[in-house]
Design a protein that fits this description.
Largest interface: A-B, 17 and 14 residues
Radius of gyration of chain A: 18 Å
Distance between the termini of chain A: 20 Å
Oligomer: heterodimer
Radius of gyration of chain B: 15 Å
Largest sheet of chain B: 7 strands, mixed
Largest sheet of chain A: 7 strands, antiparallel
Shape of chain A: globular
Distance between the termini of chain B: 7 Å
Chain lengths: 134, 135
């Protein structure tokens, strides 16, 4: 068993590696549940339903052509993008999560006394395919 | 970022500007007026995933003019400290497209007590915040 440090995280959006411009990301999975309770029980019973998920990321703005966050994300709001997330970085056997997600929000922030930053939110659509890197 | 490349590029940018002799080391004794590119207070690595960006916090550039008792030295230092004008150090550094880093910001200026060869000199210390690519 070993811990993992966030600095190794790799995030690719629509084949563009935005890792060098990303400081934080969150991957959230959830599921519907349905109440199956009937008479005679002391506690509710439930069954799982449809899965759902969200992905968020943010970091330091960069205008690098094609793979910088402005060029990779700005103008793509509402578009379904292929995202690959490596929570432990690269290496044999390390997890690789691949999913499609709709970019639902893109934000740029410009403080006068610090770097321009960006953040984005995606709604996962369909299944998440988790494999181990070769 | 290559910290030495950043320091050398700053020195090159300031050398000859407004009569300054600029150095990325501390010559002994330095000629005045001079600009000495010092070291950052902190080098912050791993600012983004995969070591994509790094940051140099509070890199100092010390500008020394003549002895403080000379009126000309005071006038000269004021020109270097001003935000605009033909000798403005902040303007010289801010209005440049850097190759060794992405963004260089002159955040503030302080006035340390310095001596050269035992003689008090007027000096201004410019504080720079620098960001650029990591590995």
């Amino acid at each position: 068993m070993a811990t993992a440090h966030g600095k190794q995280t790799k995030v690719t959006v629509a084949t563009k590696d935005i890792s060098p411009y990303t400081k934080t990301s969150n991957y959230e999975r959830s599921a519907d549940f349905h109440d199956t309770s009937g008479y005679g029980l002391n506690a509710r019973t439930k069954a799982g339903g449809l899965l759902d998920g969200k992905f968020t990321a943010g970091g330091t703005y960069d205008n690098t052509v094609s793979v910088g966050p402005r060029n990779a994300l700005h103008g793509q709001v509402g578009v379904t993008q292929a995202i690959v997330r490596n929570v432990e970085g690269l290496g044999t056997g390390k997890p690789n999560d691949a999913f499609s997600a709709v970019l639902v929000k893109y934000v740029e922030s410009n403080p006068v006394d610090d770097m321009v930053t960006w953040s984005a939110e995606w709604e996962i659509t369909g299944d998440v395919t988790t494999t181990a890197l070769p | 970022m290559d910290v030495e490349a950043v320091r050398q590029e700053i020195a090159t940018r300031l050398n000859g500007y407004g009569g300054l002799r600029a150095f990325a080391f501390t010559p002994g004794p330095p000629p005045v007026p001079c600009a000495l590119v010092m070291w950052p207070t902190t080098v912050e690595y791993v600012q983004t995933y995969q070591r994509g960006q790094s940051r140099l916090r509070d890199l100092s550039v010390v500008v020394c003019v003549g002895a403080g008792s000379q009126r000309a030295a005071s006038t000269l230092l004021a020109a270097y400290v001003s935000e605009a004008g033909t000798k403005s150090v902040p303007n010289r550094l801010e209005t440049f497209t850097w190759t060794s880093c992405d963004v260089l910001t002159v955040t503030s200026c302080t006035f340390p007590d310095l001596e050269i060869a035992g003689v008090p000199v007027l000096a201004a210390e410019f504080h720079l915040d620098i960001t650029g690519k990591g590995v």
